[in-house]
Amino acid sequence: MAINENFRSILDGIGQELTNLGFSAYKNENGEFITEADEKITARYTGEKGVIAVSYEDGKVILYAGEDIEAPEETPKKLSASLLGEEADSRDVKYVVNELNDTLHSKYSKKTVAPKKAVQQKATQTVSKAAVKHGSFYDPNTLTSKLCLVFPELRPYYKDNLAVYGEFLAEKFFDDYGTAKVIDAIKANDPQTMKKLFQVLNEIYEDGTSEVQDVIAVTILGSLNNDQILLARCVDYMSTTMAPPVIEVNKLLAKSKKARKLLENPPAYKPKKEKKPGMFAQAMAQSGGGMTPPAM
């Protein structure tokens, strides 16, 4: 069965990260490392930091954390879930490996950074799923980091953006590189790529700040130029929360030359002090109403 081979490749791919984090494979009384039951394949690991399980079920690779070594998913803390279909190839496997390694490192690594590196660390810090569960919100930096797992060729441009400006400028990155890559992927309409792309966009939009919601709905998907064929493709993958704002943004930009001009020619970059999202922005993000199209 191909999925078994892919699953083993994924376990091999996260093996070094697990070792670095102090986890080791757990074998049951029958000496089995990987078990199969009820159409689910599971591998378990244990260490001083807890117990985790990696399972393939319902077309997804799911990472669990728990306390029971025999079945940590019975008291689930689902850390991540990545699509992996029967037709998955080596690129899909690599994507899942990167997603798992990123999640494991974010949750279990000790972040000890020297003071002189504090600025760089702050610039590249992303928001984890665990942090979101405790009230945080995804930001544009996290969105871009996850998109680089879908499109690895974007990562050098992401790093350059951070290096040049000392902070991540989402509008600059997507205007120059990111948006074109996403639109090209939508035009190509490869099912596997579309699933992975919108898995990221839906997740970030659902629990994102109003800023990152604007980046997704306006800067990125607003560039579909109200193309009904491309929008129809996206609707098949978009969440019910994200689809209506994206459609309305495209209608607005199609009608307003001023709004379109502003989107295509954003204001020049001016360094500014860091500002945390206010209570209003956070409330809007929680309610899914954070979209703020360009002023007309």
Task: Explain what this protein looks like in three dimensions.
By secondary structure, the protein is α+β, with helices and mostly antiparallel strands. It is built from 13 helices and six strands. Strands 1, 2, 3, 4, 5 and 6 form a six-stranded antiparallel sheet that branches. A hairpin with a 2-residue loop joins β4 and β5 (60-66). α1 runs parallel beside α2 (90-108), α5 (140-150) runs antiparallel to α8 (191-206) and α11 (243-255) crosses α12. The chain is globular, with a radius of gyration of 20 Å. It starts with a helix and ends in a 9-residue tail after the last helix.
The description of the largest β-sheet is: 6 strands, antiparallel
- Strand proportion, as a percent range, falls in 5-15%
Low-confidence stretches: 112-122, 265-287, 289-296
Q: What gap, in angstroms, lies between the N and C termini?
A: 56 Å
Question: Structural class of the secondary elements?
Answer: alpha+beta
Query: Based on the structure, what is the oligomeric state of the protein chains?
Result: single chain
